[in-house]
Amino acid sequence: MIREVSAQAAEAGLAELADILVDAVAHGASVNFLAGLSVHEAELFWAGQLPGLRAGSTRLFVAEQAGEWLGTVLLFMAHQPNAPHRAEIGKMLVRSTARRRGLGRALLTTAEAAALAAGRNLLLLDTETGSAGDRLYRAAGWVEYGRVPGHALRPDGEPAETTMFYKRLDAGITPA
């Protein structure tokens, strides 16, 4: 089941959110952190999302099964006056033990639908070129618009290329 999580629920679930992030980094996901990410550092990251969740500028969705959170996706609403139609996807994470079950696709679809319902019809994201995320976004109809060599470091500290994607939700394209 995919559901939206309030700021209050996210704060209560900081340990679970941190565990998902630590697991993703430990299993090689290039999501802004290096190997050795501590639970405390991961909790600080998620705690830093709480103001946006409270303000409604950030929305958090989790994949949940039997009360356990298995994955996350953040939807960041653009705050610029000339971008009321835009949002970004971030922290698309699925626990290593729950991968290959369609949870990533379900999380992405839910975030896309929420963006469209909020009047956001242009979505952006970036991911490591060739990663599982890269394959997911392509399969879900996202369009590559550029690559930057050495844009970010993988968890092991090696430079990696990043691919930028966009998806229009108003041109007859609706979330899958």
What does this structure look like?
This protein is α+β, with helices and mostly antiparallel strands and 176 residues long. The protein contains six helices and seven strands; from the N terminus they run E-H-H-H-H-E-E-E-H-E-H-E-E. It has helices at 7-12, 14-26, 39-47, 50-55, 103-117, 132-139; strands at residues 2-5, 58-65, 68-77, 86-94, 122-128, 143-153, 159-168. Helix 2 crosses helix 3. It is globular and about 40 Å long. The mean pLDDT is 95.
SSE map:
Elements: E1 2-5, H1 7-12, H2 14-26, H3 39-47, H4 50-55, E2 58-65, E3 68-77, E4 86-94, H5 103-117, E5 122-128, H6 132-139, E6 143-153, E7 159-168
Helix pairs in contact: 2-3
Unreliable parts: none
What's the helix-strand series?
EHHHHEEEHEHEE
Q: Kindly report the spatial arrangement of strands forming the biggest sheet.
A: 1-2-3-4-5-7-6
> What proportion strand?
25-35%
Give a count of the beta strands, DSSP E runs of length 2 or more: 7
What share of residues is helical? 25-40%
The coarse silhouette is: globular
- Count of helical stretches: 6
Kindly report the average pLDDT value.
95
Structural class: alpha+beta
Q: Report the end-to-end length measured between terminal Cα atoms.
A: 16 Å
What Rg is obtained from the alpha carbons, in whole angstroms?
15 Å
Tell me about the largest β-sheet: 7 strands, mixed
